[in-house]
Amino acid sequence: MARPPAFHRRMIPGLMQPAPLQIIDIARFAATAHGRREIVSRLVDEPVWRYDYRGLMTRAERAAKMLEALGVQSGDRVATLAWNTHRHLELFYAAPGIGAVLHTVNPRLFDEQIVYILNHAESGVLLFDKTFLPLVERLAPELPHIRAYVMLSDEARHGAGAVNALCYETLLARESDGFEWPVVDENAGAFLCYTSGTTGDPKGVLYSHRAIVLHSMAAGLNGAFGFDAFDVVMPCSSLFHATAWGLPFAAPLNGCKLVFPCERMDGASLQELIVDEGVTFSGGVPTIWTMYLAHLEQTGETPGELQRVVIGGSAVPRAMAEAFKKKYGVRVLQIWGMTETCPLGVVATPTPSLAALGEEALDEAIWTRQGRLQFGIDLRIVDDDGRDAPRDGETSGALMVRGPWTIQRYYRAEKDAADADGWFDTGDIATLDEHGFMRITDRKKDVIKSGGEWISSIDLENVAVACPGVRIAAVIGVPHPKWEERPVLVIEAHEGAAVSEADVLAFLAPHIVKWWTPDKVVFDTVPLTATGKIDKKVLRDRYKALLSGDR
Ligand code: ADP
Q1: Does residue 140 sit in helix, strand or coil?
Q2: What is the pTM of this model?
Q3: What confidence tier does 160 reach under pLDDT thresholds 50, 70, 90?
Q4: Catalytic residue ranges
Q5: Does ligand 1 have an atom closer than 6 angstroms to the CB of 336?
Q6: Do residues 241 and 106 lie in contact, with contact meaning Cβ atoms separated by under 8 Å?
Q7: CATH entry, 24-347, from 3.40.50.150, 3.40.50.12780, 1.10.3720.10, 3.20.20.70
Q8: Which of 338, 344, 528, 536 to mutate to test the pocket of ligand 1 (most atoms within 8 A of CB)?
Q9: Does the first or last residue of the chain, that is N or C, have fewer Cβ atoms within 10 Å of its Cβ?
Q10: 200 torsion bin: left (phi>0), alpha (psi -120 to 50), beta (else)
C-alpha cells in the first residue's frame, strides 16, 4: 500500500503553480468575494457585535501586527482560552497568517491538564475571555513560558487582574489597517489542539495549513455540509475543540453568514439567535440539541429558517434525529470524527442506492450510521490479527483511518501515531457496509464483554434514550463474577419525569436481544467530559461493585 519510490523517480513535473494552501487565503477570499456578508457575535459582557468579512480581514491584519508587537514569531505558539466569538475568529486567521501556531485550550479541562498542555506547547502569549480571568490568575504562577496575557475585551470592560493583562481592543486600536501577509509553507503547523486526555496525558495534534484548507474545502461539499452563499452558519461546537469542526473556515470559503453564540448554548439563547439571525445551519454535540429540543417542546416555538443540524462527538440518538425531522422539518446530519482527523471523518448523507429503498429505509440508514466514506479520508476495519474485516455492515473491527488531514505524529512525540502505510488506529470499533456507510458500535474501552460476546453500549443507549422521561442514557460494562461484565444502564431523567426501572426495561424489551438486557437500571446524574461526552470512566468507577454479589 505504501507508494513505491519509483513513482517519484519517473515523475514528469506538473507545470501548474505550486501555490501553497494557506489559511489566510480563506479570509482573503471571503473579504474579496463575499465582503459584505455578515458576521454576528455574542460576547461575554458586551453588546452583540456585527461586522462583515471585510471587517474580519481588517481586524485580522491589526491582530497580526499586535501579535508581532508582542514578540510572536513564525513557529511560535499562541494560546487562547476563549469562547465562540468574532475575536477568537480573528485570531484563527491572524496567528497562522504570520506563520505562528494557534493553540486553542479547552477551558473545561482540569487545572492540572491546562497547566500541562500550556507548558507542553510552550505557548508564549495567552489570550483569554474575561470569564477565565480567575482561572488564569490561579494558574499563572505555574506557567513559566507565558510572557504576555491579553484579555479579549473592550477598554471599558477591561480589568488587568493579577496577571496584568493587556486589553485586546486597546492593542488593536494602536495598529493601522493593512498587512503584508508572509508566504507560509503549506505544511507548516497552524493549529495545536489537544485531545482531552481521558486516558493518560492530553496529546497535541498539530494541524498544518494544508490539512485545514483541504478539510475546509471537503466540509462544504454537497456530500458533507452542503454549503452555499445563502447559508447562515452558527457553530455550536467549540472553537477550542478541534476548530469547531472547521466551520470557521468552511463557512467563509462558501460565503456563508457566520453567527457566534459565545458561551451561551442553552436552548433559549440558541433559539433567539436562530430566529433573529436566520440561522440555516448549525452544529454541535448531542447534549446541546437535547437542551434545544426541550426548549422548543416547552415553549411551542419553531426553529425559524433552520434547515440542517450536524451532530457528532457522540452517537446521535435516533429519537433526536426523528424529532428534528418530523416535528420541525430539520435535517440531521450525523458526523463522526476526532481531534486526530481535523476533526471531520465522515458525514451521513444520502445516496441514490439508499434513496431507492424509500424514505423510511433512507432515514433508518442515515440516523443509525455515523456517516459515509468521504474523499480525503480512507477507512478500514481490521480484526484482532490486523486483517481486513468484511464490509458487510455486520462484522465489526478496529476502525483505522488515513488521509491528508489525518494525524501522522503527536506534537513532540518520538514515534509516529500512524503505521508505515499511514493508517491510524482510532480506538473505535465499527462496521462498514456496501454503500460506504460506517457505524460505530463502541469505543474500544467502552465495549461490554459478556460471556465472550460483545454488547454495544451505543446501540443500547440509542434505544434507551427514546424511552419517555429519559434525558440521558449511559450504558457501562460492570464486572460480573460469572459473565466477566454485564451492562448497567444509568439514566438521567427529565426534570419531574416519573420513570422507573420497570418502565425502562419494558421499553427496551421489544428492541433488543434478551441477553443484552441491562442487569440493573440506576437513576443518577450523568457526568460529562470536557468535550461534552458521557464520562464513562467516572461511571465505571462509581458502579464497579454493583454486581459483585450477583451469580
Ligand atoms: P476526546 O478528546 O473527547 O476523545 P474527540 O472529539 O477527539 O475528543 O473524540 C473522538 C471520539 O468521539 C471518536 O473516536 C468517537 O469515539 C467519538 N465520536 C465522535 N463522533 C461520534 C459519533 N457520531 N458517534 C459515535 N461516536 C462518536
Answers
A1: helix
A2: 0.92
A3: very high
A4: 195, 340, 449, 454
A5: yes
A6: yes
A7: 3.40.50.12780
A8: 338
A9: C
A10: left
